[in-house]
Amino acid sequence: MDSNTDYIWNNEKVKEECGVFGIFDNDGHDVARLTYYGLFSLQHRGQESCGIAVNNNMAFSYHKDMGLVNEVFKDKEIDELKGSIAVGHVRYSTTGSSERQNAQPLVSKYIKGTLAIAHNGNIVNTIEIKDELEKNGAIFQTSADSEVIAFLIAKERVKCGSVEESIKRAMAQIVGAYSLIVMSAKKLIGVRDPLGFRPLCIGKLDNSYILASESCALDSVGATFIRDVEPGEIVVIEKDGIRSIKDNCTGNSRMCIFEFIYFARPDSVIEGESVYETRKRAGKILAIENPADADIVIGVPDSGIDAAIGYAEESGIPYEIGFTKNRYIGRTFIQPEQNQRETGIKIKLNALKSSVNGKRVIMVDDSIVRGTTCGRIVKALKEAGATEVHVRISSPPFRWPCYFGTDIPSSNQLTAYNHSIEEIRQITGADSLGYLSTNGLKHILKNENFGYCDACFSGIYPVNTGKC
Amino acid sequence: MDSNTDYIWNNEKVKEECGVFGIFDNDGHDVARLTYYGLFSLQHRGQESCGIAVNNNMAFSYHKDMGLVNEVFKDKEIDELKGSIAVGHVRYSTTGSSERQNAQPLVSKYIKGTLAIAHNGNIVNTIEIKDELEKNGAIFQTSADSEVIAFLIAKERVKCGSVEESIKRAMAQIVGAYSLIVMSAKKLIGVRDPLGFRPLCIGKLDNSYILASESCALDSVGATFIRDVEPGEIVVIEKDGIRSIKDNCTGNSRMCIFEFIYFARPDSVIEGESVYETRKRAGKILAIENPADADIVIGVPDSGIDAAIGYAEESGIPYEIGFTKNRYIGRTFIQPEQNQRETGIKIKLNALKSSVNGKRVIMVDDSIVRGTTCGRIVKALKEAGATEVHVRISSPPFRWPCYFGTDIPSSNQLTAYNHSIEEIRQITGADSLGYLSTNGLKHILKNENFGYCDACFSGIYPVNTGKC
Amino acid sequence: MDSNTDYIWNNEKVKEECGVFGIFDNDGHDVARLTYYGLFSLQHRGQESCGIAVNNNMAFSYHKDMGLVNEVFKDKEIDELKGSIAVGHVRYSTTGSSERQNAQPLVSKYIKGTLAIAHNGNIVNTIEIKDELEKNGAIFQTSADSEVIAFLIAKERVKCGSVEESIKRAMAQIVGAYSLIVMSAKKLIGVRDPLGFRPLCIGKLDNSYILASESCALDSVGATFIRDVEPGEIVVIEKDGIRSIKDNCTGNSRMCIFEFIYFARPDSVIEGESVYETRKRAGKILAIENPADADIVIGVPDSGIDAAIGYAEESGIPYEIGFTKNRYIGRTFIQPEQNQRETGIKIKLNALKSSVNGKRVIMVDDSIVRGTTCGRIVKALKEAGATEVHVRISSPPFRWPCYFGTDIPSSNQLTAYNHSIEEIRQITGADSLGYLSTNGLKHILKNENFGYCDACFSGIYPVNTGKC
Amino acid sequence: MDSNTDYIWNNEKVKEECGVFGIFDNDGHDVARLTYYGLFSLQHRGQESCGIAVNNNMAFSYHKDMGLVNEVFKDKEIDELKGSIAVGHVRYSTTGSSERQNAQPLVSKYIKGTLAIAHNGNIVNTIEIKDELEKNGAIFQTSADSEVIAFLIAKERVKCGSVEESIKRAMAQIVGAYSLIVMSAKKLIGVRDPLGFRPLCIGKLDNSYILASESCALDSVGATFIRDVEPGEIVVIEKDGIRSIKDNCTGNSRMCIFEFIYFARPDSVIEGESVYETRKRAGKILAIENPADADIVIGVPDSGIDAAIGYAEESGIPYEIGFTKNRYIGRTFIQPEQNQRETGIKIKLNALKSSVNGKRVIMVDDSIVRGTTCGRIVKALKEAGATEVHVRISSPPFRWPCYFGTDIPSSNQLTAYNHSIEEIRQITGADSLGYLSTNGLKHILKNENFGYCDACFSGIYPVNTGKC
To answer: How far D172 CA sits from the closest chain C CA (Å)?
Structure first.
């Protein structure tokens, strides 16, 4: 279904929190099937829509739709996508309003043939670029950044000699966060923005090259991790092999720290850092910064578990399972009504009474956004018999919106923007509340010189977002 | 599903045999629901995909998908399409390869806001226009003419003061057949190409204006027929009322004669001619030109019935029902295999033995394309006991392909291109075979001065199609 | 979906207006596929649900669901139904409340193996039989007669030596209308009730035998008509051939006359009578009984067409096409609201202005049930310019409900039960109104001695229905 | 879809591993919605099909289908199921052959009205009972035990004065494992077989009573746990309150020990035992019985986690996260082909390199069935850098099939039936392998006198299964 019953273009544009995967085959692999598995392992980066485009001797075909990877693709769809190059995409939606035409990859014909583009990130000067393009007669059928990028590449391609050169020139006009995979007639091209907000890595499977948002996608297809694409780098994969254009590299990195804290999968390694290790380390520092006198440490599934293990290890307080999580909640689940929620319907998480009853509990989670969920969990623990609940958060308080492709709501919805820590403690009903300090945050990565973006905590944006 | 597993852009482009409907409301009508009924009455013009776009105070929303009108739209979809202007489209596919992204209306953002375009026809210089646009950086996401038209309008809009002026300028660059409905922020605009290949008419419902491919769509919503849009005319409907731009009018008409013979619905009136009457008249002339000594006249359902009644009336030979047609064949019907078909499986049509047994039968149909179906029907009649079968065709032999939006196959698939009438008679097994003469064709319309396109019969194309 | 959200068993039971088809293969035919085509040609007898059961060396499998034959069965379903005996069913629902568990064939295991039963008709003493069976511990999972029949057969099977003997004994306990096809481990058995209310005929395809509700189903698979099953006859088809049990034959027939007037397909031959011919003959008698001074004769599609042709032939008044019927209305069509209907929305039928304008019209239909549809059509004809509309009905007035498997509403909903003919004329707005007389009805069949049931016209029920 | 394309009744019958939930409302709750949440929390007990039946003043309605709770039920389905008593069911399928007609609850009409039955367990003398019932004329439309139970109740009901009395009498004829919820015109009845193989508990929500397979379902709707139904007990809930029939109680319990080890949810409390605690305790005993010299303890998600925490706690070796599990695998996931699996495709589990690299690992799981999965996981750990992998299993070796409703394959598929522990160690590639001893098993429950069934480990069946 190609449905768009929400207003179009009234709202600025969709958030682009996504995962990308591409393969240039030299071994006779089934590229669509490998992309399917790659996207599946990146599903945590986007559950709203997905798509795969393939290039079969310069003839492009694609399939994309709303839904999870295993809903959108069945054997039939995969079997029909024959080719030797593929690019895939999973997309996250920030609201119920799912604008279907924004599903990616975007496949479009331009002066030199066909391009398929998969994009992760958020361009902050989209409107300015669109205005300029429209003045030259451009029309837009979607509100996705990828269409803007396609137009920029097409516009530059008229004036220069190759796709990669067009991409390089287009990058000069784009401000913001983007990791791209571009499939052209004969090439697969990986791109990261000059500050490297979003991850993108290179892998190898036999003689074939792979690009992916996270290294867990390489593992999922049995490929070997080669290296991360550098901030500002353009990686061109073609029949002859792989090469780099580094004209836009600045040596500066502003990798999103939130990828480590929450967004990436624990088994991924990004910029040489094991995501799992950074989370455990955050838990350990949290234990040092915010100790508590308690009997057990528990984590809120799934995002708080890793830090909880770190906290327990550092503090010497035993780690325990605090909750049973129902794994079967699908997209069409009927949510309990407000009054049911308050009178004790426990659908998704159920506190494990035998663990927490009569205990002083340290409850670790990765972040507090609005505070209501946290409060509900604290209440459930107390009802299950916890005598004290000490909430520990493995990142600093969220105070600022993100303009670089992560779906963090605007400040007035962020509890920490409106309230002091003591107020939040009262709101959530916790006996004590402690956050990781911004100083502590600096030490969750092994490489302490690594440049990252922590604008959501600090309010300091590495580029002009045009929002203030 | 947004699926395209066929090669994209390798093939020239899709055929655009379609129906369009638009309404500018001044009375508080439910525009989406009226468009639903309008499209439903135009379903015979296209069964592959359909769509409706609405404009609600300049906010556009739409829903489109593969399938029949009553499959794509349920109460939910209609209810969500609120607005005061609407445009809808039904589309026909010539092959199983249904390119989903080509569903219409095409909704796109351009320099002055948003446009929705519904198109019926076929532009013959698409490739030349696309090449030119791509040289200026344009990208194309579909292979539909409507996207080309949208780009031309957007390009001209930069240089001039209104949508209608942009359309007028765009028309100067387009060669071919097109009836368009364009919905902009504040206007609903109807357009016919300068030769008026495809029909488009204007209706009124209370104080609201309607545009539709055929007058039967006006009847279906209870509207009154006002007049046809003239060849080359641009009709602009806005809050203040309705007005015309006739700069591109030539006074010349090349309306497709096949609309009367087969394509339009019998209850439509086009260019002042009742479609039903033209068919009956074709049958009468056929009876004069090709008499036969027989007991009964029958028509092949549904397209041969009207001419059969005319033939019977003129010849004085009784009209009879010759076949029972199964009305339940849907898109997913499992076709009988070749050998089953030959051994007598009669799924769609069953000859009515009690009518034809022992009779000399005149069997009237509107045309013969490949000849195989006709032969199968003649055989079925003989098996049902017909002693003679005299085939009479209410149009001249098909010999030439159509480049103006009607799906007639290329010449080498047309029996009449490859064979004499006597050979076709032998192929079909008919006892005699007679076609309407091209001279007879001239008289099927009341207005004998009316200029029409009969290129499929004559090979004389009114514009340079670039194909020869 | 197996959904039943209506109350169960509160209402008496479902009406069983249906079509049945069965094949015992001796030639290696694909029995499921042939049954698919057979059911498809019987689709007019039931559009709510359908099913096919096959017997593969005594292993039974089946597929059934709500929907049309071409919706429920795709290649996959047909391919999985391998076997050498098959039985199929199409079912009609009288209301929106579609009780899914009632889909047929009913497949059940009993003392001697498995039985599949397809049933057309209506048993009038169901409740009495169920009460008796329940007293012996029976449970019922559906409200369909076929389950009652299965229980009776199972009960008798304990006491006697064969399925056919059990069926014979079961028939002694059943009052009402039923044509059955029963598939057992090694046999295909056809049964008609002793009065033969519903049709059932025998055909042959190569060396294989077929049973079907109507002969058009034999045509559809290329089979030859052998004969009708006699009222009260049990036809047993097995490896050795075909044989009959006629113990329950009475020599008496009460075939439903409505099968000829409306229900059966015109190309079927039932009891030696061409359905089409009976309809034409009804039209001729109607013309004699109810002449009118008029310019043209038209039929209401589709059921009034055949009689209209007879009326025209007899009266010498020219037959014309009066309406264009939209063929695309599917089950999910959004009905116009009441006020739209009255203000002129013409969705299903559109009067053909060029035929009727300025004419005195004789409009023939097969029956009037509630009168509202007829009135709406008369109004449409007048709006299209008809100067007079003379309604002629090719059957006597409907006054009594049917308890034998035809969905005719209860008397208080029947216009003719509540009103005189003159009153109905006024209600419908016709200039004159004439029905076929009950005397005329006697002559619509060639065989004037044929015994039929006309209870819906006469109120004389051939068996005690327990309703009065 | 009501599809059964597998052979029917050729195979013995379906396994009945399931969850049940019922509510008798006295407060005006939305019983269907509460049942929805209850079933959702029991989803781990069965993912193949589900259903809900409601009783609205003695009018029954239901909805059931193949699929997960959140797939089968949307708002519409729930909204249509109005009533004051409800019963629901989730069902597990052992194979791809999903026999749809076996979905529960089974709703059937019998001599005293209507019954809805939801069943968890497996009756071992089904065939004998069916044979006997068929001799009295019974027919069976499904292969589910619930239909046999319904027949027995109906048969007894003819002879006695109440449903509960009929149930009591039926129990005397049934051998095997069953926890039942029966909904009649005015009652909700809970039943456990005399040995109490399967769990069933009673809860209260305001003034309404609930029956559920596990206490986690009570938590999910905010109800309070009252007590377990006793082995052999019949609990009758009606307007007047709740009462018990204990004539079939033996004081003997043979609760399935596997419910504690694997099947039940960790947050459930069964027979006074916290499931989570029993699993942790199993891990602790395992650590004592089978120590290993290692650096970390990890659990195989999700079933091995709880025991791993116990093992770590007892041994003092740090607990670590060993794997990332992909949570998005749905029913339609395309499985990797055999060769892909062997060449390293890691879809469901990915070993967490940063945890295990360079470490000696103790890997805890709840059981080994065929051995292939375990071997694959060991291999993955070694590839991720584990220097040693010591496999520890928190239950004794599986050697015998289960006839009481748990899907354990036949012995010849059980690795432990065919191989010594040392052989299994070699097959899985583990450096050492240790199982919980049967003596250790005795101590995983707090109540060491509790009688349980461990036939799958011991081969000692508490009732005659008729299989040997």
So the answer is: 17
**Among chain D residues, CA nearest to A219:** D346
Under 8 Å between Cβ of D278 and D448: no
Interface of A with D in 266-305 (CB under 8 A): 266-267, 269, 274, 276-277, 302, 305
**B224 shares contact with chain C (CB less than 8 Å):** no
B382-437 residue pLDDT tens: 999 999 999 999 999 988 988 888 766 677 778 888 899 999 999 999 999 999 99
- Integer Cα distance of C416 and C420 in angstroms: 7
Q: Which tokens go with D267?
A: 């947050």
CATH of the domain at B439: 3.40.50.2020
Domain carrying residue C362 = 276-446
Rounded to the nearest angstrom, the gap between the alpha carbon of residue D283 and the centroid of all alpha carbons in its chain is: 21
The number of folded domains in chain D is 2
- The pair of three-digit structure tokens given for residue D256, joined into one six-digit string: 């399935």
Out of A455-459, B348-352, C16-20, pick the least confident. Answer: C16-20
Q: Count of B–C CB contacts within 8 Å?
A: 151
Give the chain D residue nearest C66 (alpha carbons). Answer: D1
B contacts of A158 (beta carbons < 8 Å): 134-137
Q: Does B10 touch chain C (CB under 8 A)?
A: no
For residue A409, what pLDDT is reported?
67
- Cross-chain Cβ contact D60/C9 below 8 Å: yes
Out of D8, D65, D157, closest to residue C2 by CB: D65
Q: Measured between CA atoms, how close is D130 to chain C, in angstroms?
A: 9
For chain B positions 26-55, those within 8 Å of chain C (CB to CB) are 33, 36-37, 40-41, 43-44, 47
Pair of tokens at residue D417: 């039936």
Chains with 3+ CB–CB pairs under 8 A to C are B, D
Q: Do D137 and C2 touch (CB under 8 A)?
A: no
The pLDDT tens digits of the residues spanning B263-313 come to: 999 999 999 999 999 999 999 999 999 999 999 999 999 889 999 999 999
Pair C123, C236 in one domain:
yes
Q: Where are the beta strands (DSSP E) in A193-338?
A: 201-205, 208-212, 224-228, 234-238, 241-245, 255-256, 269-270, 273-274, 296-299, 323-325
Record: contact D141-C10, CB cut-off 8 A:
no
The rounded distance, in Å, linking the Cα atoms of D114 and D157 is 12
DSSP assignment string, D396-415: PPP-S---SS-----GGG-H
Interchain CB distance below 8 Å, C354 and B318: no
**Residue A465 domain flag:** no
User: What stretch of H or E contains B64?
Assistant: strand B59-66
pLDDT > 60? residue B16: no
| pLDDT, average across residues D138-142 | 93
- Specify the range with the lowest mean pLDDT, choosing from A345-354, A421-430, D389-398: A345-354
Q: Note which residues in 78-107 of chain B have CB less than 8 A from chain C.
A: 78
What dihedral do alpha carbons C132, C138, C141, C143 form, nearest 10°?
Answer: -10
Whether the per-residue pLDDT at A197 is higher than 90: the answer is yes
What's the mean per-residue pLDDT of chain C? 91
B6 pLDDT band, cuts 50/70/90, is very low
What CATH number corresponds to the domain at position A82? 3.60.20.10
Rounded distance between C-alpha atoms, residue D286 and residue D272, angstroms: 22
Interface test with B, best of C45, C205, C345 (most B CBs within 10 A): C345
Same domain for D287 and D411? yes
Is C4 part of a structural domain of the chain?
no
Contact pairs from chain A to chain D, CB under 8 Å: 151
Domain contains D135: yes
Q: Which one-letter DSSP state was computed for residue D64? A: E
B170, B295: one domain: no
Q: Hey, is D220 helix, strand or coil?
A: helix
Residues D38 and D186 placed together within one structural domain of the fold: yes
Name the pTM for this structure.
0.91
